[in-house]
Amino acid sequence: MEGSNPYHCCATCQHFRVEKTTGNVSYRCSRLTYETRPEYQFQCWSPKESVKRLMDARREKREE
Q1: How many domains does the chain contain in total?
Q2: Which of 11, 15, 34, 40 has the fewest Cβ atoms nearer than 10 Å?
Q3: CA-CA distance, 58 to 36, in Å (whole number)?
Q4: Is residue 44 part of a domain?
């Protein structure tokens, strides 16, 4: 995909995990094995299937 990707952030990655404990919520990357934040971006980003579909639909609309 050319240009900036509005979907590229940890929260849209297939490796993003939300861990809830009593009174606490943490965010973790299961691939990198460390804490992250939903809005962070890394080069290893692998979008969830639902995000891939959104990106494809956006690309198709742009090509029309």
Answers
A1: 1
A2: 34
A3: 27
A4: yes
Tens-level pLDDT at each residue, the chain (64 residues)? 345 687 899 999 999 999 999 989 999 999 999 999 999 998 889 999 999 999 999 988 888 7
Domain span at 38: 10-61
Stated pTM of the model: 0.75
Contacting residues for 31 by C-beta, under 8 A, at least 6 apart: 15, 44, 46
Torsion angles phi and psi, residue 27, rounded to 5: -120, 135
Token pair belonging to 2: 């050319």
Please report, for residues 18, 22, 32, 36, 47, the alpha-carbon distance to residue 56 in angstroms, rounded to integers and kept in the order given. Answer: 26, 39, 26, 26, 12
